[in-house]
Specification:
alpha+beta; six-stranded antiparallel β-sheet; five-stranded antiparallel β-sheet; 7 helices; elongated; Cytochrome b561 and DOMON domain-containing protein
Length: about 375
């Protein structure tokens, strides 16, 4: 019994020391076992348990490197990238590695052109003569040789990790914690590293604010305002309350939409030349149509005016066009930001609920209108029924 206890204690201490060594390791005391690589410089990256080793040939611009990510699960992907045109994720030229569900390692290059990237395989803006990967003891290493333009000795770099889905697709990385801190500036000659603070996190925060504001304004308040105007006015007791409710919903939606456009302009200026043309064009069109609807209030003829029917046709047509374009553009925004699936599902459920309410009210109001017309057309039957 004593011998079993000692063996168990020794095993526990051995595993604990191994775990402690892993969590406290630095790049300088690491020895590559699968490759006999020796690098001239290395750095302990400030986030995601990552390390970078490299040797730089200034004459040719060639960089031999190894990016290590420790303490990771086999069902995760990792990436290290250089952004030659700016800072952050968009525009970065990435080296990606993951192990598929069959246990086969894959290492490849992927240019990141938008926040909705799926890290598809593609050529980078610079040469990558060699790339491979190794995974063992919950550590993924990307080995590569890249050739940078001459005199590019200081680079903006980012590194990231995320889930590998069962369909062999790379999922979105987490949007908080260390995953928004994994970026900086690297001097290949001196080995000096400067941490970039707030860049990705700040931009991501504005993206989330932009999405929430526009989903609430154009995607929720606008349809609610339309439903209010179409169905509440049928109930005589709701007159003129339905009109003021309609005005409040649509005005609030438009004002919030202007704020959402402001965040969109800010994000466009921070996109480093990457433009989402469809999303931007529809957004501008919505602002213009919304402004026209606001002006329409000033031009609204009285009920008995002969042009009132044409004003109603115009007002309703533009209103429904705004709602359709708003919903389309919100899903376009989902495709760009690529948030967790739950957010797309939540908004889809909101639309389903609003649609169901509209269908029910459509039936109810038509029944009320038909009965009201019958009473007007057959006043004698109403008198008989009362008698």
């Amino acid at each position: 019994m004593k011998r079993i206890f000692l063996i168990a204690l020794f095993t526990l201490l051995l595993s604990s020391s191994s775990s402690f060594a892993q969590t406290t390791q630095t790049c300088t005391n690491y020895r590559f076992t699968t490759h006999n690589n020796k690098y001239g410089a290395c750095v302990d990256l400030q986030a995601l348990n990552s390390f970078l080793h490299w040797s730089y040939d200034e004459a040719t611009g060639s960089v031999d490197l190894a990016y290590r990510h420790v303490g990771m699960k086999p069902t995760r992907w990792v990436a290290w990238a250089i952004n030659p045109t700016g800072k952050g994720m968009v525009g970065s030229q990435s080296l990606v590695a993951y192990r598929n569900p069959n246990g086969i390692l894959k290492a490849y290059t992927s240019p990141v052109m938008s926040y909705g990237t799926k890290l598809q395989e593609g050529n980078l803006s610079f040469q990558v003569p060699k790339i491979s990967a190794d995974f063992s003891n919950n550590e993924m290493i990307i080995f590569a040789t890249i050739v940078l333009p001459k005199n590019m000795t200081t680079v903006s770099h980012v590194w990231q990790e995320g889930p590998v889905r069962g369909d062999n697709q790379l999922g979105m990385h987490p949007l908080g914690g260390d995953n928004v801190k994994s970026m900086g500036t690297l001097d290949l000659l001196s080995g000096k590293v400067m941490t970039t603070k707030g860049g990705t996190s700040g931009t991501l925060h504005f993206k989330q604010v932009h999405g929430i504001i526009n989903a609430v304004s154009w995607g929720f308040l606008m349809p609610v305002g339309a439903i209010t105007a179409r169905y509440m006015k049928v109930f005589q007791s709701a007159d003129p309350a339905w009109f003021y409710a309609h005005i409040i919903c649509q005005s609030s939606a438009y004002l919030l939409g202007i704020a959402g456009a402001g965040t969109g302009i800010y994000l466009g200026n921070k996109s480093h030349g990457i433009q989402h043309s469809t999303h931007r064009t529809i957004g501008i069109l919505l602002l213009v149509l919304g402004f026209i609807q606001v002006l329409a209030l000033k031009l609204r003829p009285k009920k008995e005016h002969k042009y009132r029917i044409w004003w109603n046709f115009y007002h309703h047509s533009v209103g429904y066009a705004i709602i359709i374009l708003s919903i389309f553009n919100i899903f376009e925004g989902f495709n760009i930001l690529n948030p967790l699936k739950i957010w797309r599902l939540v908004y889809a459920c909101v639309l389903i609920v609003l649609g169901a309410i509209a269908v029910i009210l459509e039936v109810v109001t038509w029944v009320i209108v038909i009965r009201r017309r019958r009473r007007i057309e057959n006043p004698a039957s109403n008198i008989t029924a009362v008698a």
